[in-house]
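Quick look at the format.
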Amino acid sequence: MKIKQRKTKNYSVKAFWALLGYRSYFQKEKEASSLPSKQYSSIIKKSDQIMLEKKLFLNNNLSLTDLAKEVGTNRTYLSTSIKTVKKQSFCEYLNSNRVEYSKKIIKEKISKCDTGIDSSGMTAEDYAIASGFSTTRNFVRCFKKKEGITPTQYKNALLWKVRE
């Protein structure tokens, strides 16, 4: 009597364990090769320091590769560090630095006026260009996303504080 063998799909060991709910060998290998969280933090610390000292965010063509070269790491580690530590994408990280810088510029301009009237004559477009944004629309959108108000509302709120 001949026993019929059932034809089965040839699953790899990886797929077999994945079907059983276990982490695959490749996931374990990937986790082992990733950097410890302390190294992610040190990369971000260095990145923040370089961004502030050299004001790299003012370059509206700054890329992840450019920043990685300045920090002394590769773009993958820098991107992963930003995602892990800051919980942001590279663009969000870059734009948050630009928004902080624009807030600083607005505060400096307002602190120079004693009357509570903005005599600087700077518009949202001027602040956008001065802080590294390529368009006013993107500047206003990012500012509102981060601060909850538009740059004009922020400036007006500071002006009201000066008047009081």
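Next, a different chain entirely:
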Amino acid sequence: MQSRKLFAIIAISLFGLFVVACGSGESDSDSVSTSNDGEEAALVLRIDETFTVENFQAAGFKLSAEFDTETVPKATNVYYGFADRRDIEIRKYESHADAMSAGVESALAILGRSPASNSAGGIITSGGNRTSYHAYLVAGNVVMLCQTDISACENLVKAALGDG
């Protein structure tokens, strides 16, 4: 089952890259696509931007906790909080390249994981509940895991940039 899901994610990612590469010929250096829960395109925004948690707090992110990065390869910080009444996890990396490699890999590993799962991934809240993430995006040097859909994360990035 795991290998089928991985194969589907890879196939969809390759198809998405093919579509982008063979697209209209116009390029947008601020946005490209990758796989998101094997179903929809994940946004990759502002590849040259370097974000801090303060950027997102100023845009409305309510920080609840900062977690150890031991189980999140190459992450320098892991923040948990919410915006637009949705749980969001922000994983900060040294560079956009680290976010695109280790960050995307770890995001894909936990997307859709059952809230009752005992495996690593997702945040266990103070009430003992596990938050399950179903979408993610990459913005510069961060990977944002989004509770139900990508809109709360996308709105937060836009607001942090003054676009929203």
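Residues 2-160 form one domain.

See the schema section for token definitions.
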